[in-house]
From TrEMBL:
Top-level taxon in the UniProt lineage: Bacteria
Matches recorded under Pfam families: SBP_bac_1
Protein name: Extracellular solute-binding protein
UniProt keyword terms in alphabetical order: Signal
Protein source organism: Arthrobacter flavus
Length: 415
């Protein structure tokens, strides 16, 4: 971008964001106006406190370079994002461009443009092959990989020292012992967010750590022996009082904020958590380590969010392509993805960001990352089931029953 990222406008645009309803973008006409210009609706989640400002910066520069295209921005929390999207789809007002996770159900229902319809060959060729392949359904790419992330263990070194814990845990048993020791000092040992924001993420971190997972593009597998063992260990942590209170209703974002203030011993965090600590509590004495697993073998959650485009009336592919090509141009994209603290999905972006020491631990973990089966058409329903049902683990329900309920939702969606 020619202009620097506008982090200072967050407060001013937040008030404007209140004018946006949960089922629209505030404009009366999101198509072509009388003068032939095109208006695009863009629905995105909030990755950080600066997300709105970052997108506002992209849009300002894009509109300056493309005077015949305007972009209407709507920013939602991850907790509300999917319900907002579903409301818009049901009302026939799906966003022209959507930044989210699951996409295969939309593709199989014929709601999305293909990737070739919304990006130039040059843009498509710059995506790393592994990420591009993850955006396919039945051999056709529909979405554009926006960012990548891996999870790591963040631990409070002062609390570790106070509790007499020597070094970061590498296994579940060591994690349990460390959490127990820290809890005995009066601070929750481990933060376990099982609320609707990202219950599926916390679940997959633990299940991947026992050789489990959620399946692949052909089959969703939630109710498995490996996953059950992981859920049982999680419930043991909860029942033994080693987590924060009411984990079944705890959302990830506020829980990480509590860790940043030094009030939880350990959490699983993202690359952007490093930047949050630097901004909000730079004096925090913390360490980064691989995710503890049942055996100690490395495994972590990998996340690759994406941009996709809903067809709607089918006449905006050219304008969407113009926007995608602008956004994924090397300098524009690298500035955005680095400011949000994530890993790039493009070859050019990876080359430019390879020297970033902050990202190095997470880049090292990517080879052992397990991803959501987003190319499975039943994943949308499975994702929703985790968010609404898995928190029952922290409310007394037996793990076997919780997994059975989620598997039933997945199986029903696959029929």
């Amino acid at each position: 971008m020619k202009k620097s990222i506008r982090t200072g406008v967050v407060a001013s645009v937040a008030a404007a964001g209140l004018l946006l309803t949960s089922c629209g973008f505030g404009g009366e006409d999101s198509g072509q106006d009388a003068e032939g210009s095109t208006s695009l609706d863009l629905l995105v989640p909030s990755y950080s406190d600066n997300s709105r400002a970052l997108w506002e910066g992209v849009i300002e520069d894009f509109e300056a370079a493309n005077e015949d295209i305007s972009v209407n921005l709507q920013v939602e929390s991850w907790e509300n994002l999917e319900s907002v999207l579903n409301t818009q789809i049901q009302a026939g007002e799906a966003p022209d461009i959507y930044n989210g996770g699951a996409f295969s159900a939309f593709a199989t229902e014929g709601l999305l443009y293909t990737a070739e319809e919304i990006a130039s060959p040059e843009t498509l060729e710059d995506f790393q092959e592994s990420f591009a392949a993850n955006e396919q359904v039945d051999g056709t790419q529909y979405a554009l990989p926006l960012l990548a992330s891996a999870r790591a263990l963040f631990y409070n070194e002062d609390l570790f020292e106070e509790a007499g814990v020597d070094g970061a845990p590498t296994t579940w048993d060591e994690l349990y012992d460390a959490a127990e020791a820290i809890t005995e000092t009066g601070t929750p040992g481990y933060g376990m967010p099982l609320g609707s924001e990202e219950a599926q993420g916390e679940a997959l971190i633990w299940m991947a750590g026992n050789g489990g997972g959620f399946g692949d593009e052909s089959e969703i597998t939630v109710d498995t022996p490996e996953n059950l063992e992981a859920a049982e260990f999680m419930k043991r942590m909860i029942d033994d009082g080693l987590t924060q209170s009411d984990p079944g209703a705890t959302q990830r974002t506020p829980m990480i904020n509590v860790f940043i203030q030094g009030q939880i011993g350990m959490v699983y965090g993202l690359p952007q958590t490093v930047g949050q600590i630097e901004a909000e509590n730079p004096e925090l004495n913390y360490g980064l380590a691989n995710i503890p697993t049942a055996s100690g073998e490395p495994a972590t959650l990998g996340v690759a969010d994406r941009l996709m485009s809903f067809k709607n009336d089918g006449d905006k592919a050219e304008a969407v392509t113009t926007f995608m090509d602008f956004f994924f141009a090397e300098d524009n994209y690298v500035e955005w993805v680095s400011a949000e603290g994530f890993l790039p999905t493009t070859v050019s972006g990876a080359e430019q960001m390879s020297g970033d020491e902050t990202l190095a631990p997470f880049l090292d973990m990517l080879p052992s990352a397990v991803f959501y089966p987003t190319s499975n058409p039943a994943w949308n329903a499975t994702d929703g089931a985790f968010k609404s049902l898995f928190g029952q683990l922290g409310q007394g329900m037996e793990p076997a029953e919780v997994l059975e309920q989620i598997q039933a939702e997945a199986d029903a969606a696959a029929e």
